[in-house]
Specification:
By secondary structure, the chain is of the alpha+beta class. It has helices at about 10-35, 80-95, 100-125, 130-135, 160-175, 190-205, 210-215, 225-235, 240-245, 250-265, 285-300; strands at about 140, 150-155, 180-185, 270-275, 275-280. It folds into 2 domains: about 1-40 and about 75-125, no CATH class; about 130-300, Glutaredoxin, CATH 3.40.30.10. Strands 1-3-2-4-5 form a 5-stranded mixed sheet, with helices on both faces. A hairpin with a 2-residue loop joins strand 4 (about 270-275) and strand 5.
């Protein structure tokens, strides 16, 4: 997980506290703005017909038309500075007496932001569905012909990716029809990119899932030297592996995943996609969330995953 995207309780608390503190200020400013926009509209003047002058003698009586006096245009009289100050005081006292309003406003704001983000994600997935779920060159685990696909963006030096591995293994072992697609996103270090090259090259020898698990289970930082040592233990052809690592195709695979992540708004690892849903990070109930999403998609159907 990137430093910016990695869950940080203190940062989360600070952000929430900042938001919580911002709500009363926003509410107060909104109230004052409302006060400034209030106006006192004078009553309309209704024109009345004036007494008709005496009619001159005529053979045929003539109707007397009295033009109406046009009403004066409405004018707005804003509150005086003293009135605004008094009303502002009333609003402030009300907010202090009812602090739960701040929590309600915060909750409503978070719900709105989550909904907007969810809608953006659905659009992005629909626009890039084939590249996300059905890339013929993608490295996979589980059933190659599985009915539902789970996608993971990850980095071999990401601590949360290491933690999420066991949840993913549990999903693959427990569901014979699930298919997992891996998207290399080496954002933490040069060693991360080196490890991704080794993994992709190992996939050409049919050992991607094996080396993927081994590198994430290994202790310490992952780089080319450590990744090659693992590849040797797994019995891979090291000379062929090194040749494939340096190939333009391997570099293209990494760049393609990075470009896809950018389009999807993925800037941290791990990041899971199932249908049109996303699971950022590695929550403790990761397996259950993934399994439930897979189950839901089997019921509702998914044309691209």
């Amino acid at each position: 997980m990137s430093l910016d995207a990695r869950p940080n309780p203190l940062r989360t608390l600070a952000e929430r506290k900042a938001l919580w503190l911002a709500v009363p200020v926003i509410a107060l400013l909104a109230g004052l703005a409302l006060i400034g926009s209030w106006a006192v509209t004078p009553p309309k003047v209704v024109s009345q017909a004036q007494p008709a002058p005496a009619a001159a003698p005529a053979l045929v009586p003539a109707a007397v038309v009295t033009p109406a006096v046009p009403p004066k245009p409405e004018t707005q009289a804003t509150f005086s500075a003293e009135q605004k100050q008094e009303l502002g005081k009333i609003i402030k006292e009300y907010l202090i007496a009812n602090p739960e309003i701040f929590l309600e406003a915060q909750s409503a704001l978070e719900t709105k932001m989550e909904k907007e983000q969810s809608e953006k994600l659905k659009v992005a997935i629909a626009e890039n569905a084939r590249e996300i779920y059905r890339d013929p060159k993608a490295d996979i685990a589980g059933n190659p012909n599985g009915d539902i696909t789970v996608v993971e963006f990850f980095d071999y030096n990401c601590g949360y990716c290491k933690r999420g591995l066991q949840e993913l293994i549990k999903l693959v072992d427990g569901d014979p029809n699930v298919r997992v697609v891996f998207k290399e996103l080496p954002i933490l270090s040069k060693g991360s990119e080196e490890a991704s090259r080794v993994a992709i090259a190992a996939g050409r020898q049919g050992k991607y899932w094996d080396i993927h698990k081994a590198m994430l289970e290994a202790k310490g930082q992952m780089n080319e030297a450590n990744a090659l040592a693992i590849a040797t233990k797994l019995g891979l052809d090291i000379e062929k592996l090194k040749k494939d690592m340096a190939s333009p195709e391997v570099e293209e695979e990494i760049k393609k995943s990075e470009a896809l992540a950018k389009k999807m708004g993925v800037n941290g690892t791990p990041h899971f996609l199932v249908g049109d849903r996303a699971i950022p990070g590695a929550p403790e109930d990761l397996h259950d969330q993934l399994a439930n999403h897979v189950k839901d998609l089997r019921k509702s159907g998914c044309s691209y995953c």
